[in-house]
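Suppose you are handed a protein chain with no further information: no name, no annotation, nothing but its sequence. What can you learn? This example shows the usual starting point.
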Amino acid sequence: MKQTVVFIGAGNLSTHLALELHKQGYPILQVYSRTVKSAKTLAGRVESQSTIAAKDLNAKADIYFVALKDSVVNEVLSEMNFQNKLLVHCSGSLPISVLSTYSKNTGVLYPLQTFSKTREVNFKRIPVFVEANSDENQTVLLEMGRMISENVSLLNSEKRKALHISAVWACNFVNHMYTLAAEFLEMKDIPFEVLQPLIDETASKIHEMHPQEAQTGPAVRFDENIINDHLEQLKEFPSHHKLYNSISKSIFELHQEKKK
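A reasonable first move is to predict its three-dimensional structure. Written in structure tokens, the prediction is:
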């Protein structure tokens, strides 16, 4: 018999993890969220009950998954009683120790992926990282992780934070660059779609070579004529101008170091 689960949080990560565990046969007893709509929507998709009241948290679950914004974790958990059941967070940046106040049995199950509620993902391909405060809890989470992913490993809090920082660089910051590129093209009446083959090839190359080797463009060789021309065009957008200049210098300096 699979462990019963309660989800605290109904955002992007909770939605995908709850759906995947539900698909694998884990009974989801309840979904808690601060908003009625979010709680009911996810609960409906995993055949569960919903609540927005901490006092009504189901006390019969085996595992409680916490997938909240880091800044509200303590505020929300302090209102709840977990009776020393297994309490697990899904954050890349929070240490496992943040849970020790609320239960004697704690763990982390961290799927390394970007999630959007409206977009399906193949969970089997997502790296999942596990940490626990006892061998018994570790075994439970490793087994659960292997039910949903083909890539499950142990990782402590310090290394998970480093991984999360790298993920921000590789995902969130890169996507921000897409946003800036899209905005600039829209102002010039050019569709963003024309960049998609370039983006796809750039992402594809790093499966075959180190990112530093895959780097191309004027900044690598510090082609001042091109860079200065681009900066001139960006003068009316001060924040874009500053970012372009800073990143160009960073690329050039990194590749100069490589030559030493």
